[in-house]
Design goal:
This protein is an all-alpha fold and 240 residues long. The chain folds into 2 domains: 125 residues, Tetratricopeptide repeat domain (Serine Threonine Protein Phosphatase 5, Tetratricopeptide repeat); 106 residues. Helix content is 83%, strand content 0%. It contains 11 helices and no strands. α1 runs parallel beside α3, α3 runs parallel beside α5 and α5 packs antiparallel against α6. The protein is globular, with a radius of gyration of 23 Å. It starts with a helix and ends with a helix. The model has no long low-confidence stretch (mean pLDDT 88).
Length: 240
Amino acid sequence: MDNAEKLIQNGLDALSKNKNNKALELFSQALKLDPKNTIAWNNKGVALRKLGKTEEAINCYNKALSISPDSSQTLVNKARALKILKKFDLALFTYEDILELDPEHQEALEERERVRNLLARRAKMSSKGEDITQIENKEKELLEERKKDLVDFLEESQISIGDSVQRIEEMFTHGIQEEALDQREKITRAIVSFNKQITDRIKAVTEEFSTLDFEKECQESLAIWHSFKDKKLEELQKMS
């Protein structure tokens, strides 16, 4: 492994630990040794975006794309940054570029739809002469309320589901296996049903917003829920 590759690997490790300033330094050093390294340019952009320097991040993504125009991951990162800057038209074009390379790219398909919906809502407001900036400021406050409601709901539900799974496991361990397996099927169906309710609820709340993407803003909380859900379903299936 040459010095540039080692610096990049260390930079990726720093990124994974959210040591973003260190990562930025390492990718910059790698680029001094290898100015055309697209991995370094792309991840330097990631580090800059995490540090809140979104415009600079886009410059890095553009540099990487000037060397390797068909890099789907760099295009994805660029589109994410454009959304942060609320440059939705450019983000939409970028998602279209990704889908030209990979028509089945899941994130691009989902994000293209979200951006289209945001643009449609904004166009509708503009046609009515409404002040988008003023509406956006009001929606930011509403967003925090809705996010808190969702987080509280998910946390309470996880405690309830966790307790139920633990009781079923204890029943199974203590030899009440037939009843435990029956309860296992019921709680499994309940978890799957609850997951759909969450999805439907988020879609419904998303419709309350004209300028912001509620679903996107809740991705971290949803990732925690999905990790919990998958773990509990796995624990239940181990009983046999």
